[in-house]
Design goal:
mainly alpha; 3 helices
Length: 108
């Protein structure tokens, strides 16, 4: 039979494990939500940017030195930049998850 102090220590250890699991789960949910928002933003920009392009080319006198705004490939450039940013976010998310798994395996 364990003493009261040993039982209390075991309860505290279990509570710590539960808190860590809850924190990890919340971090994963937040990461997934952020990734979903990035994907949604990319889709919205990819869909609506080509529709806005004729509006930017309507008055070319205001686009004095801008090469990107006067060119017909403006939408592709913006979508490529957003896709690159999304790729960086997904890569950082993967690295974060790998570290979490390594910490969890080291704990066991």
């Amino acid at each position: 039979m364990r003493s009261t102090d040993e039982q209390l220590l075991e309860i505290m250890k279990r509570a710590e494990v539960v808190k860590e699991k809850r924190t990890i789960r919340n971090q994963i949910y937040a990461s997934l939500a952020a990734s979903g928002v990035c994907v949604a933003l990319l889709v919205v920009v990819a869909v609506y940017l080509p529709r806005l392009e004729p509006l930017t080319q309507k008055n070319e006198m205001q686009q004095y030195g801008s090469l990107l705004l006067a060119a017909p490939y403006t939408g592709y450039v913006v979508v490529a930049l957003i896709a690159f940013a999304l790729g960086v976010c997904v890569t950082l998310l993967g690295v974060h998850w790998k570290r979490l798994r390594q910490k969890e395996q080291a704990r066991k």
